[in-house]
Write a structure and sequence with these properties.
With 465 residues, the protein is α/β, with parallel strands linked by helices. The protein has 17 helices and 14 strands. Among the domains are: 214 residues, Rossmann fold (3-Layer(aba) Sandwich), CATH 3.40.50; 82 residues, N-(1-d-carboxylethyl)-l-norvaline Dehydrogenase, domain 2. The structure holds uridine-5'-diphosphate-xylopyranose.
């Protein structure tokens, strides 16, 4: 295997930026592809496995399955070193010192809970190939208590007692669009171990420290705790972020009723250090493959544990978030004179956030589809996500330029805050539309610029001038 370094015997290896490890990454979706590339970039020998041969072949040939700034370049440079290889044969990962489980945990169809099929399948398949001294590191987002279950499943598949399977739970905190930065220089590392304080746990921590040596040497905090706490850290962090967004969107609803301005309000409360400005961006709310499904899975798991009351507020967080999408449709209808039927609506943005081509649970596409269902003709533009949207969410008319999107529009909706939209010169669009009305669903455009160019500017949570 090219670049496949022979592994030195554990536990002679210790936390040092000089020592590289032999690593496997199981699952090459968003998390796994980024993790594999970043680990190879750090100097480790990495073999990444996926059941999907097409994906494996594409990655091995330098093609990423997703848009993430910097990933193509880092994949190319890592492949060129020979330290990064891809395989669809799990037996190829048997030499690894450390195996990272990076498979997806989507929302189960028709339910709130997470679907753990892929995590369990990875554990069952890995067991027979696991060296006795190898460490398994779980990164997927899972319901609390999964780590221990996984350790038992791996043990069964490996034919040894669970106490002889080394497993650390090390949740990821990647933001799409910043995934490389978040992998190489995260805010913190969290290690969940089976029995904190034991020599076995210390050996596992030392091995994982060796993998992350460079970031640790740069001062990234590392926290060691038990499995349930580590699993909960991830979902608690996402629940907090979702709550912060829904909080400001609830304030947005109150501002709309009272004639206040949510942007001014967020700016003012954010100056309080205890609150801070981040994640107080009011608008059409959160989407993507993490926050929505993670808060639902968290509620479902709390229910199973008999702690559902503790998380009933997340139901409201979810409801506020979805209400913003409906409110956007109402504003569009109002702007079109009370009906969407027969109107032309331009939608700027399809991805759930900028700098990503991910359309999972995208507020923009939900809104576009609702407006289309109300009888409007909807034209959607996005700088990066059109190729995915055309396949996965056919329905709206996807167009390649902003000019095409706005041609003849009765209203333009700004739903994903790409820099390209923020940089638009509104005066170049005025003559293309039927009526120059823009509704800013992200509160990121400059109202004065649009108004000066002759547009009626409206936004969620801001007074209608
Ligand atoms: C999130 C977490 O940030 C990350 O730590 C976790 O590992 C995975 O989930 P991500 O889904 O990539 O990451 O996006 P994030 O930047 O958190 O944004 C989530 C959603 O919230 C987006 O739809 C974004 O548009 C929205 N958002 C964000 C707001 O509506 N307002 C804000 O102020 C911030």
């Amino acid at each position: 295997m090219p670049g496949w370094a022979a592994s030195a015997a554990f536990p002679s290896r210790r936390y040092s930026a000089e020592v590289t490890q032999t690593i496997s990454v199981i699952g090459t979706g968003y998390l796994g592809a980024v993790h594999a590339v970043c680990m190879a970039h750090l100097g480790h020998a990495v073999i990444a496995y996926d059941v999907d041969e097409t994906k494996v072949t594409a990655l091995a040939n330098g093609r990423t399955p997703l848009y993430e700034p910097g990933l193509d370049e880092l994949l190319a440079s890592s492949l060129a070193t020979g330290r990064l290889t891809f395989t669809s044969n799990l037996a190829d990962v048997a030499d690894a010192d450390v195996h990272f489980i990076c498979v997806g945990t989507p929302q189960a169809p028709g339910e709130n809970r997470a679907d753990l099929t892929y995590v369990y399948a990875a554990a069952d398949a890995l067991g027979p190939h696991l060296r006795e001294d190898a460490l398994v590191v779980g990164k997927s987002t899972v319901p609390v208590a999964t780590a221990e279950r996984l350790r038992r499943r791996i043990a069964t598949a490996a034919g040894r007692p669970a106490s002889q399977v080394r497993l650390v739970w090390n949740p990821e905190f990647l933001r799409e669009g910043f995934a490389i930065e978040d992998t190489l220089t995260p805010d913190r590392f969290v290690y969940g171990v089976a029995e904190p304080g034991t020599p076995e746990a210390e050996a596992d921590v030392a091995l994982l420290d060796a993998v992350y040596a460079k970031s640790l040497a740069d001062g990234t905090p590392r926290l060691v705790m038990d499995y349930p706490s580590a699993e909960l850290v991830k979902v608690a962090a996402n629940a907090f972020l979702a709550t912060k967004i829904s909080f400001i969107n609830a304030m947005s609803e109150v501002c709309e009723a009272a004639g206040g301005d949510v942007v001014a309000l967020a700016e003012a409360i954010g100056h309080d250090d205890r609150i801070g400005h981040k994640f107080l961006g009011a608008g059409v709310g959160f989407g993507g493959g993490c926050l929505p499904k993670d808060i639902r899975a968290f509620m479902a798991r709390a229910g199973e544990l008999g702690a559902d009351q503790a998380l009933t507020f997340l139901r409201e967080v979810d409801a506020i978030n979805l209400r913003r999408r409906a409110r956007m449709v109402d504003l569009a209808r109002e702007a079109c004179g009370g009906t969407l039927h027969g109107r032309t609506v331009a939608v700027l943005g399809a991805a759930f956030k900028p700098n990503s081509d991910d359309i999972r649970d995208s507020p923009a596409l939900d809104i576009a589809e609702m407006i289309q269902a109300a009888g409007a003709s909807v034209r959607v533009h996005d700088p990066r996500a059109l190729h995915v949207a055309r396949v996965q969410r056919p329905g709206p008319d996807y167009v390649d330029t902003v000019q095409e999107a706005v041609a003849g529009a009765h209203v333009v909706l700004h739903l994903t805050e790409w820099q390209e939209y923020r940089d638009l010169d509104p005066s170049t669009l005025t003559t293309s539309v039927t009526t120059p009305v823009i509704i800013d669903g992200r509160n990121k455009l400059d109202p004065a610029r649009w108004r000066e160019a002759g547009w009626t500017y409206r936004a969620l949570g801001r007074p209608h001038i």
